[in-house]
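Each record in this resource describes a single protein on a pair of labelled lines. An example record follows, reproduced without changes.
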Amino acid sequence: MSAFSFHETKNVISGEGGLLAINQPQYANRAEIIREKGTNRSSFFRGEVDKYGWVDIGSSFLPSDIVSAYLFAQLETLDEIQARRKAIWQRYWDRLAPVLPEFDVHLPFLPEFATNNAHMFYLVCRDLAQRTKLIAALKAQGIHAVFHYLSLHDSPYFQRKHDGRPLPNSDRFSNCLVRLPMFYELGDSDVDYVCNSILSHLSAS
């Protein structure tokens, strides 16, 4: 089984929801039932049973027709969407990579064995203070840049379960990572404006 998210921050979106990909029929059949409120309704519509009822646990996981149509249109142009996102990602990289190290700001690291799905473009600042000032400076320029997730071990729920060992890498990225705007409609001039605003702020700091 493999899961794909269609949350609004992803490359292909439907607001919320996702896709479950299954390559073994016995699991696919049960997943369909769970998706259909625990019923074998889909089998009934295919004429495989003469009536349908509740045969397992389940919930109402089906998207509406409008959401499905919105998502399907994107899936039909997935190659185009991905090509544009990769172009945006590369433009950020080309503009920022030669300059940012002198400000002790780092860019994404892609190992040689990895591919780039252009899901996000982020910077890793020197510390929390630098990131806070950068986000504020970009906001003043009308640019919506955000920090990423907080460390799980610092969340209210998991604090009680954490054994107390230090997790410096988790803390560092929670405090220092900032995500730049990344969406299909972002134009080259928009990317340049973001980059120029970043460099202007850092140069003046």
Q: What stands out?
A: The beta strands are 2-5, 18-21, 121-124, 146-147, 177-180. The longest helix spans residues 78-96. The chain has a mean pLDDT of 93.
